[in-house]
Amino acid sequence: MEGDEGFTSAEVDVMQLVSGRGEMRAEVAQQLQEALVARGGAESDDAEVCCIAAVGAKGSGKSTLLNELFDASFELGVRCGPRAAASGTHGVWASVVEPGVVDVGRPLLVLDLESQEASAAPSSAASGSAGSRNPSQCVSFTLALADVIFFNVYASDLGRYDAAGYALLRTMLSEFCRIFPRDDGRRTALVFVVRDHDDGSSVQTLQRMVEDDMTSLWKSVSKSDAYQDSGFDVLFELTLVTLPHIRYRSTEFRAGIDALRQRLSGQTSALLKPEFCKAVPVHALATYAEVVWNDLSDEQVASLPSQRELVAAYRCDAVFSEQHKKLRGRFGHWYSDTEKGCFLGGLGKDVDRLLRRVSRDYADGTSLFSQWPVRAEQQTRLSTFVQHNFRTLFNKQLLLLQNQTLKRFKNQLSQRISVNGAVAPSDQDTLIKGMDSWFTRRASGLVAEAFPELTFYTARLEVEAVLREFAVKFNDSPTVQLQALTRIQREASKPVKERKLGLSLVLNGVMRPRGYGNLQFVSNYLRNGHRANLVAYCKTDSVRLISARGFQASFRVQCERQTIRQRGDAAGLAATASCLGARLARHAYSRKRGPVRSFAQVFGTDAPA
Known about the structure:
Blueprint: E1 14-18, H1 26-41, E2 50-56, H2 62-70, H3 81-87, E3 92-96, E4 108-113, H4 122-126, H5 134-143, E5 148-154, H6 161-164, H7 166-179, E6 188-195, H8 203-220, E7 236-242, H9 250-264, H10 285-302, H11 307-339, H12 347-365, H13 373-415, H14 425-444, H15 457-474, H16 478-492, E8 520-527, E9 530-538, E10 546-547, E11 550-551, E12 555-563, H17 570-578, H18 580-587, E13 588-590, E14 594-595, H19 599-603
Helix pairs in contact: 1-10, 2-9, 5-7, 5-10, 7-8, 8-13, 11-12, 11-13, 12-13, 13-14, 13-15, 14-15
GO biological process, one term: endoplasmic reticulum membrane fusion
Protein name: Protein ROOT HAIR DEFECTIVE 3-like 1
GO molecular function: GTP binding; GTPase activity
């Protein structure tokens, strides 16, 4: 909403009670008071106002929530023009709810507050507005008036200090301690409205996360002695409500709005207990609002930080920047490896070690300022940064591991295809169990002790479901069966590898005329269907090998080359053997006689015996 261009928005029932410059509009307060009386909410002089306010970070949908819940007409950031959309809501906007929309039993006033980021808008600084102190002043004003405060936050921003607007919550806690005495016993209903909840996390898990965040914020707040030993629950009654996405799950969103409206209705509403009422009479609303705002303005001007506090803030910020730089560098490497498809098996332990080291270094560097809240704030920011980036990396790594598991499962299924082109159900179950164990072992390394809420249980169930679905479709897939058949044919058509080196013993019986030797040596080599034979034989009778002069053997060497056209063809081998004599004669060589041209020259006769 634009804060300095008029008292009302496009609808006359929405009015700007406090401007973006921090000015209370007394005439608007009077109009709101008259509207409450005119709409039948004040039947007696002592009727009290019921006030519900919405706070949160810029763009968190506060105005949308109020419009849907109370049928109001607060302007939205997307409809306020470029300037307003960039800066968010300024000041405090108010609207009187029509009778019958929500039956709370009292006149109902709703407030839409300035966000933390809106206070730092350039337009406010340029115009000399009080934007730097406006958010805390608006929060203090709301605490003095509201029965119920809706803190609007997106589910993805929970736990993130800046994105969730936790600075505004911390201001709320601090201002409550300052405004209300401990023995006053006054409380306010604080309702966390978690937007865009996709049912991925249970409401109980979100409730614990919110309670832990509130406890951490409460510990970092400077408190008076009366509040030192108390918890934040003495100030606020914490409630959590979840709403799905307004556009993609509009039906469930409307149902959630109706359920929240029912919780606000009736005299015994759990969100509108008598102890939450600030007891502001309807006829005194304008005066009460103006006096409270002026008192808060005077106190804010006087509350300047001390020199010691400034030194603490500077030193804590310097150490924070140093540790934050280390975290960015380390997470940057992890992000880069993840984008390359690398699985980080020990990510959980690495993150635990990194967080412990950074926390220790930050604590050592800021030990002199342990009593200042700024130290705890920066420590929380470091932890939140680690948590947010680890959650992102954790989810990316789980997705990568899921894809690797499915790919591994496909390969193992293909290897187990039987002759009929299918995988037996028992084999499928065995493979699925093996993949589940493999996935669990690797995913366990991603879990960090510092963030126990991040588990792989859901991802494990998703993997098992996908594997079973794929296994069912696998046997019916023509493409897979064709690939399997091709693989089987390729395996069957591979040639039998021949041994390149072999040793054999052959016993031959040969009858030859006397005077010709019976001793011969045969060696052959086979490659690609070609055989080379080397034959050495003695041409002298074995009885004449030994004489008075010693060993007098005379040998011939023959070479032969054969081409075997069909492996295992006995007829072809027999035909080859029948021509052996002629081929030996053509390729024989004699040391004494030189080349031999006829069979008779080889054996000394016309025909072998």
